[in-house]
């Protein structure tokens, strides 16, 4: 059962969210304060608690990745329409003077740029890319469990408050290991999430999905994902994916020179879109913070139930 506004983001819903801490920008970005910010932090602490099922090591990474490293996984050829690049003015004094001599901002609100430095960085498209990049070239003698949170950036055709944003917060839990180790991780992750959703009284449906490739009909990876689904999304209200489990096979192991037992490591991940969780919880349980579930307590219960199993 979902609330009366599930799937909608009309002016009444937006106004209600603003009263509990949302500041919405037309660029598709959300600022949080008050109850919604506290709920976002509660969500993230719960996800970190779930990550402790595997004693996943926390890492913190910057806002961008070297484009050359990101392309080792083929990102820019697969998702050029979603990439957000880091651009800077070329630092030569005449070029900076040319910028200052102009309007700086034109009448349409656009920056009137002079020459740019070479573009070598891409703003984070998904938090897990940093983990593969950060461990590039490592030879693993055991499965590696990692977790990280980052602000992610993607170009979108439209924006909806908390549901579809140009920048959003992603928490991920990643496993690198053998085929068997990654399959076991995903099975345990699905079981943990199903328990977690039940304790939160969130009615979610697992749906097979594909990554948003550019011209998917021409991309062999998209065709392979259609034939052998490797991405499943926990979907709220029929159309809002708030979490996903993803099996990468050895795609990132090969791209970043990560090995396990002498071969390219397999990898998989669990991803949570935190702003989408704010939508789902406030829609299912209402806008009064007193009615929101205790997320960290629910995650701790899941951990206690499953901790006896093998990672």
How would you describe this structure to a colleague?
Helix 2 packs across helix 10. The protein is α+β, with helices and mostly antiparallel strands. The N terminus is likely disordered. The chain folds into two domains: 256 residues, BirA Bifunctional Protein, domain 2 (2-Layer Sandwich); 36 residues, no CATH class. A seven-stranded mixed sheet has the order 3-7-8-14-11-10-9. Strands 6-12-13 form a three-stranded mixed sheet. The chain has a two-stranded antiparallel sheet with strand order 1-2. It is built from eleven helices and 14 strands. It starts with 10 loop residues before the first helix and ends in a 5-residue tail after the last helix. The chain is globular, with a radius of gyration of 21 Å.
């Amino acid at each position: 059962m979902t609330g009366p506004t599930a799937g909608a983001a009309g002016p009444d819903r937006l106004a209600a969210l603003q009263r509990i801490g949302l500041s919405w920008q037309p660029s598709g970005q959300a600022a949080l304060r008050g109850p919604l910010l506290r709920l976002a932090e509660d969500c993230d602490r719960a996800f970190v608690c779930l990550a402790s099922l595997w004693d996943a090591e926390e890492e913190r990474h910057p806002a961008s990745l070297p484009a050359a490293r990101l392309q080792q996984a083929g990102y820019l050829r697969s998702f050029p329409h979603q990439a957000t690049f880091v651009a800077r003015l070329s630092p030569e004094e005449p070029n900076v003077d040319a910028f200052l001599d102009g309007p700086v901002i034109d009448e349409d609100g656009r920056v009137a740029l002079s020459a740019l430095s070479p573009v070598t960085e891409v703003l984070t498209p998904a938090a897990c890319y940093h983990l593969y990049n950060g461990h590039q070239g490592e030879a693993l003698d055991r499965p590696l469990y990692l977790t990280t949170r980052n602000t992610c950036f993607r170009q979108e055709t439209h924006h909806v408050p908390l549901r579809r944003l140009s920048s959003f917060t992603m928490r991920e839990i990643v496993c690198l290991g053998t085929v068997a180790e990654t399959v076991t991780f995903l099975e345990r992750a699905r079981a943990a999430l199903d328990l977690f959703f039940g304790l939160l009284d969130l009615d979610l449906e697992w749906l097979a999905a594909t990554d948003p490739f550019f011209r998917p009909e021409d991309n062999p990876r998209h065709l392979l994902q259609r034939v052998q689904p490797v991405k499943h999304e926990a979907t709220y209200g029929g159309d809002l994916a708030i979490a996903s489990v993803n099996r990468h096979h050895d795609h990132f192991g090969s791209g970043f020179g990560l090995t396990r037992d002498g071969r390219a490591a397999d990898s998989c991940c669990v991803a949570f879109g935190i702003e989408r969780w704010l939508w789902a919880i406030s829609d299912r349980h209402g806008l009064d913070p007193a009615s929101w579930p205790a997320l960290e307590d629910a995650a701790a219960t899941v951990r206690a139930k499953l901790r006896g199993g093998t990672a």
